[in-house]
Amino acid sequence: MAKSKAVQQAASTLARLQKAHPDAHCELVHDGPFQLLVATVLSAQSTDVAVNKITPELFRRWPTPKALARADLIQLQQALSSIGMYRQKAKNISGLATRLVTKHAGRVPKSLAELVELPGVGRKTANVVLGVAFGAPEGVVVDTHVQRITQRLGWTKQTTPEKIEADLMKIFPKRDWDMISHTLIFHGRRICAARNPACSACAVNDVCASAFRAEQVGRKPPRVRSDKPSKPKKKSTKKKLSGNAAKEQATRKLGKKRARKTTDQKQAVRQASQGGKRRGV
Fold first, then answer.
1. Catalytic site residue from 124, 167, 176, 178
2. For the chain, how many helices (H) and strands (E)?
């Protein structure tokens, strides 16, 4: 199958984007592979900014895999409580620290196969660590920014991260795999947003397959909420009475109510009378 023009120009397009974002890098603050691994696990469904706010204190209290493995789970949850899914993430980082100590002598493994066996670590997290910490990615990190922009640029027609990653690994040499994601993430945050992308300010709008009509490309379709049909009201089995019949029925009910009241009053008088006799009144 012949390559599209966008794919043929992909290498030069990436080079232009890198020139536009020379400061592109992993924004998770870390010191070494262990801290990067933990921070990346915590970043799932959370922003890098939110993670960076809690990791300094986290690593001050539990600076090594051994220390983190021994941490009290409740205290871990409290330390992570400002980010989403903190209970599950506390279990994950505690579990991965334990696994690092028991299976890897307290060191972060350098292979994708070993990393994805750790709790809370998937292919994307593993490749972040391999690329940033070791300079040896085994794939391309595809987050929402990368997914959206690669579709808009025409580098892929796929819609799932796994298939998009496979396309990117075919298009680009391995030496580019790590920087692809950092560059596209910066571009997505600064220029090519999901809503209202700034196409006029884009450095590659002349070669972008979706330039100036990009907003509906690479975005998740809106969720369609099907309104549940309301339950039909149960029809009353009682027959409606005509005007005179209804009045008669109301009169009978009122009469019965008065009769009950009179009976109750008479019963109360008898009880009072009997009580007086017993007391000798």
1. 124
2. 13, 0
Per-residue pLDDT tens digits for 114-154: 999 999 999 999 999 999 999 999 999 999 999 999 999 99
Query: pTM for this structure?
Result: 0.76
The DSSP call for residue 198 is -
Secondary structure letter of residue 22 according to DSSP: T
Q: Which of 214, 122, 8 is nearest to 130 (CA)?
A: 122
Say whether 143 is catalytic. yes
Residue 165 and residue 181: Cα distance in Å, rounded? 10
Take residue 15 and report the two structure tokens written for it: 């080079």
Q: Tens of pLDDT along 252-281?
A: 777 776 767 666 666 765 666 665 544 444
For residues 86, 87, 88, 94, the Cα torsion angle rounded to the nearest 10 degrees is 100
CB atoms within 10 A of CB 48: 16
Q: Return the number of other C-beta atoms located less than 10 Å from residue 189's C-beta.
A: 13
Using DSSP, state whether 121 is helix, strand or coil.
Answer: coil
Cβ(202)–Cβ(208) below 8 Å: yes
CA–CA distance, 192 with 61 (Å, rounded to integer): 39
Q: Out of 48, 91, 110, 143, which one is annotated catalytic?
A: 143
Minimal CA–CA distance to 149: which of 189, 177, 200, 201? 189
Count of all residues that appear for the chain in the document: 281
- The residue written with tokens 């600076």 in the block is 63
- Give the span between the Cα atoms of 140 and 162, in whole angstroms: 9
CA atoms within 13 A of residue 114's CA, in its CB half-sphere: 12
Annotation marks residue 167 as catalytic = no
